[in-house]
């Protein structure tokens, strides 16, 4: 059976992969995550996911490497992770009371052949109005600081997400149904090949 390697430092991505019961190793990439602002959001997340997966593929003779990248898009402008608390405040102040898009790219690389398959998902997220005080209280939890758009739908942020249209896991950082489709292109069927015996109850 092929070894699966998650090229990510994100605990959320690890938890999502654990949810579906596959066995994998974690090997985070520290490649440069800069991008060309004139590219489309979908191209940016696919490129960054591919860059992370290709970087880690270079350490292995064989195995299937998974990379991912998530950004928030508001009025055509990309919001990544906040630089500091003030930046988080600015982002949340812009996002509150309206909808935005979350794009996640996923790339799967076969380390042996260097074949790459990359795709993306978009989820529309509606955020409730937030007062300045609420934004400051939320920032004080530190939850925003390592997340695109400065919020986590899976944490305290759940309190002010009114609804979403699209894949929830895409917002958290790993659109797992899309990943499953990409893995099929490499001959891997999660339910048939990969479910870890310990996860079956
Ligand atoms: C919008 C949103 C983002 N996020 C997270 C997902 C990603 O981890 C992060 C965006 O940063 P990324 O650069 O995509 O990922 P990362 O730096 O955390 O990890 P790595 O590059 O090593 O894979 O924002 C949430 O956890 N919840 C949310 O609701």
TrEMBL record:
Question: From the UniProt record, which GO molecular function terms apply?
Answer: dTTP diphosphatase activity; UTP diphosphatase activity
Q: What does the record give as EC number?
A: 3.6.1.9
Per the record, what are the reactions this protein catalyses?
dTTP + H2O = dTMP + diphosphate + H(+); UTP + H2O = UMP + diphosphate + H(+)
Q: What class of enzyme is it?
A: hydrolase
Q: Which cofactors, if any, are listed as required?
A: a divalent metal cation
- One GO term of the cellular component aspect? cytoplasm
Instruction: Spell out the residues of the site Important for substrate specificity.
Output: 12, 70, 154
Which InterPro entries does the record cross-reference, listed alphabetically?
Answer: ITPase-like_fam, Maf-like
Q: Provide the active-site residues from the annotation.
A: 69
Principal place of residence: cytoplasm
Record key words, sorted? Cytoplasm, Hydrolase, Nucleotide metabolism
Protein location: Cytoplasm
Pfam families reported in the protein's UniProt record:
Maf
Q: Which GO terms describe its biological process?
A: nucleotide metabolic process
Superkingdom field: Bacteria
The record, for HAMAP family, names: Maf
The text of the family note is: Belongs to the Maf family. YhdE subfamily.
Q: Which NCBIfam families match?
A: maf
Role: Nucleoside triphosphate pyrophosphatase that hydrolyzes dTTP and UTP. May have a dual role in cell division arrest and in preventing the incorporation of modified nucleotides into cellular nucleic acids.
The name this protein carries in UniProt is: dTTP/UTP pyrophosphatase
- Organism, as annotated: Tepidibacillus decaturensis
């Amino acid at each position: 059976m092929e070894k699966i390697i998650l090229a990510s430092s994100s605990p959320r991505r690890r938890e999502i992969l654990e949810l579906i019961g596959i066995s994998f190793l974690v090997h985070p990439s520290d490649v440069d995550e800069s991008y060309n602002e004139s590219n489309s959001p979908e191209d940016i997340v696919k490129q960054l996911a591919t860059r992370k997966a290709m970087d880690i593929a270079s350490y292995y003779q064989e195995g299937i490497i998974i990379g991912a990248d998530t950004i928030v898009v508001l009025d055509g402008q990309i919001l990544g992770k906040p630089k500091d608390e003030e930046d988080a405040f600015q982002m949340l102040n812009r996002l509150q009371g309206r909808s935005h898009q979350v794009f996640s790219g996923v790339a799967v690389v076969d380390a042996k052949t260097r074949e790459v398959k990359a795709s993306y998902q978009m989820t529309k997220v509606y955020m409730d109005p937030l007062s300045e005080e609420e934004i400051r209280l939320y920032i004080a939890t530190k939850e925003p600081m390592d997340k695109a758009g400065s919020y986590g739908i899976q944490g305290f942020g759940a309190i002010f997400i009114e609804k979403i249209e699209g894949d929830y896991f895409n917002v958290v950082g790993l659109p797992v149904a899309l990943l499953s489709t990409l893995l099929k292109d490499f001959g891997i069927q999660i339910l048939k090949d990969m479910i870890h015996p310990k996860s079956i109850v």
